[in-house]
Design brief:
Shape: globular
Radius of gyration: 18 Å
Structural class: mainly alpha
Number of strands: 0
Largest sheet: none
CATH superfamily of the largest domain: RNA polymerase sigma factor, region 2, helix turn helix motif
Number of domains: 2
Helix content: over 70%
Number of helices: 9
CATH class of the largest domain: Mainly Alpha
Distance between the termini: 51 Å
């Protein structure tokens, strides 16, 4: 019974979004705490790890600037996910425009080439699988936590993780 009282005392996204839109920085900080790992996973599914770190900040800055225009405060998590996906696409567009191939910086060998190889393989999976796998394997989020943060049904998260892991295992066994 005590746990239920505690759960009710935590403000929902809608209340936090409305407070943050009214200028409450602590409320926006709480939204950041709730969703930074989800945003990082979405970005990591699309851009190199070094870029994902910087883009997390860009996503939240963009969200803060646009927060007053959000019509449905309860739709914050989906809206934030869309901003993250758009920032990743913007990064790829800008990268193509910036440097011709011969001028591109030399890529140094990653500290753990196997981890980066597996991450690249995960990034080649269908979107539903890659995002949930990265949230689980890289960000360490549990299935229920992924469902809560993304708005997916818990069963959908389980299915995505199961199918994604099978695809990853099949690939690893073929190596």
């Amino acid at each position: 019974m005590h746990a239920m009282v505690m759960a009710q005392a935590v403000p929902g996204d809608g209340a936090l979004v409305r407070a943050a839109a009214a200028g409450d920085r602590a409320a926006f900080g709480e939204l950041y705490e709730r969703y930074a790992r989800m945003v990082h996973a979405i970005l990591l599914a699309r851009v190199p790890p070094s870029v994902a770190e910087d883009l997390v900040q860009d996503v939240f800055l963009s969200a803060l600037r646009q927060l007053r225009g959000l019509r449905d405060s309860e739709g914050f998590r989906g809206w934030l996910g869309a901003i993250a996906r758009n920032k990743a696409m913007d990064h790829h567009r800008a990268a193509r425009k910036q440097a011709p191939l011969e001028d591109a910086p030399v890529q140094h060998a990653p500290a753990n080439p196997d981890a980066f190889l597996i991450l690249e393989r995960i990034r080649s999976l269908p979107e539903a699988y890659r995002e949930t796998l990265i949230m689980r394997l890289v960000e360490g989020m549990t299935g229920p936590e992924i469902a809560e943060r993304t708005g997916l049904a818990p069963e959908s998260v389980r299915v995505n993780l199961c199918r994604g892991m099978k695809m990853l295992r099949d690939w690893l066994e073929s190596k």
